[in-house]
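User: I'm putting together notes for a lab meeting next week and I want to include a structural view of one of the chains we've been expressing. I don't have a solved structure, so I'd like a prediction I can at least talk through. The sequence is below, exactly as it appears in our construct file.
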Amino acid sequence: MDRFLTLIVVGVFLLGGGVIFVTSSFGEDSVNVGIKATVPESLELSYWIRWSTGGQDPYEFGFSGDATSIDFGELEWNENLGIWLPAKYYTVFLIARTSGRPYQIKQTSTGLVSGDNNLNNSFIMDPDYEADDKYSNGVAQGDMPAGDSLGEAGLAAEGERIIYDSNSGKSRIVRVYYGISTGEPGTPGEPITGDQPAGNYSGTVAFTLTLK
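Assistant: Thanks for the context. Below is the predicted structure for the 212-residue chain, given as structure tokens.
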């Protein structure tokens, strides 16, 4: 028995004059660990507003800034055109989050009203999409997804208007420009002439995010 134990401990056997080493070989073993995460379902429309002077991009340094509302202020008389125009124009940026579901962003407006008078035929809007618009992480959003589309320019207070129609369901930054019509050919609306009654005109614009 002692001799047998010695052979096990030493692990050496003499066989035909040769030496064989007994080694121990282990196979693979594995365990599985569960992983879980829950992404909440979302339906949210975010926005921010920028003002800019005529013809300037809403992020043009020195010619734009943040805003909390669309406030054209006191209009200025343009001698060359013979109409009233604002010094500032406004861009509303919209971004929808729908958990990847197709959606539409729509707009309605009460217009600009003062008593029995209004500027509804002069208050205009124009949806836009810019591939270079960036998210908060500084990454440009890129081209509009295939199957998505913009609404058309027109009077802001002319019923319910589609701003953005998304079949892809992807979150994208959409612009809506707001201004007062200049009456130029091919553009919507009518200019505000010297016949327009004086007054403080006000109203609201509402945006709605709906699933398709």
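A couple of points you could mention at the meeting. Residues 3-16 have pLDDT under 50 and may be disordered. The longest strand covers residues 44-53.

User: Perfect, that's what I needed.
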